Amino acid sequence: MRSALRLRQASLVVGLVCLALICAASIFNLWFIDSLHNTSFHRSQMVWLVIGLVAGGLTATIDMDFVRRMSGPLYTSLCVLLVAVLIFGREINHSRRWIELGPMNMQPSEFMKLGVVLVLATWFDTKRSTTEWPLRRLFLPLLIVGTPVMLINLEPDLGTSLCVSLIGGSIILYEGVRKETLLAGLLVLLLGVPMAWRMGAVRDYQKGRVQAWMALDDNAVNRKRAGRASQSEQALWAVGSGRWAGREMQGARRSILRHLPFLYTDFALASWAELFGLVGTMALFALYLGLLWWAIYLARQTKERFDALVAIGVAALIFWQFFINAGMVIGLLPVVGMTLPLMSYGGSSVLTVMIGCGLLVNIAMRRRAGS
């Protein structure tokens, strides 16, 4: 019992330390980016992190039974907000994703990531199947995931809709599905992507990003010299210039980072990699792995099914955003518009991750974990 208690306490410490260090890294990285463009994103990020800390702390004290009861109303409210965004939302870069709240903008699609986690956890906890789920019994969970994905894709926001899909899919797979169900899902994916491409569901600028990613080759050097490098190529050059231990601050300021769009959001990792090199990037990755280990450990040890599903959902939220963003920056994946949790600037994104971590603290502090 004592060893189990110590391990639970150690997991909580590891999770909170990793969270704190990632937040500190975010402030420093955004401060450097601000020095390139004479902006002040790091100050706004500090404010959002403080607000997120308060929101996460409050979430850690709420009874999980209350969270379960409120998951349905929360999900419904977020769906209504997603519809409102399409009608009244503020348009930025040809996309309606934000609702203006005075001096601030709220992005409901970010909060929907947690909304899907909570309502799926509630549904599976209520049904309590001891066998693998057949396809016919997964209609409602798939509808729960598919509805916000469709609304988010209409904004359009391919990155967030993809992330919500992957989060929902991760929870469903964790619950267990039959082999024929999994094969049917893979078949739909293999047939659906080419059809979406041909039928116009994928917009021209999104196709352009995929085509630019597929064009990453030896000619990238010539495009860079001519000033025609794509976002993926510019990010890759910045990452490579960091080498093992990173560049000096003045050297990094003269880099291609000055001309890389969305450096403070989608490509914040490129800035970090150039400043601190492979060693610093691996250290940052280790912090994210620490957060993921904490969430998965709680999911495996807790006695409450709802708590386990929430922990898996939060782990999926962090993992898929991290994986897709890192893949974009190093050229393994096309640019789809995905922030790096906590490192990228964005109030709604920061609040979502901090509230998710607050749920993990809640699960850990309730001492529901088994020995």
Shape: globular
H/E order of the elements? HHHEEEHHHHHHHHHHH
Main structural class: mainly alpha
Distance between the termini: 6 Å
Uncertain ranges: 221-228
* Beta-strand proportion: under 5%
Oligomer: single chain
Helix content: over 70%
The main sheet orders its strands as 1-2-3
- Main sheet makeup: 3 strands, antiparallel
Number of strands: 3
**How many domains?**
1
The mean pLDDT is 84
Give the C-alpha Rg: 21 Å
Number of H- or I-type helical stretches: 14
Give a concise summary.
This protein has 371 residues and is mostly helical. The chain is built from 14 helices and 3 strands. The longest helix is centred in the first third of the chain and has 36 residues, at 2-37.
Structure description:
This protein is mainly alpha-helical and 371 residues long. The chain has one domain. The protein contains 14 helices and three strands. It has a three-stranded antiparallel beta sheet with strand order 1-2-3, with helices on one face. A hairpin with a 2-residue loop joins strand 1 and strand 2. The relative contact order is 0.16. Mean pLDDT is 84; it is low at 221-228.
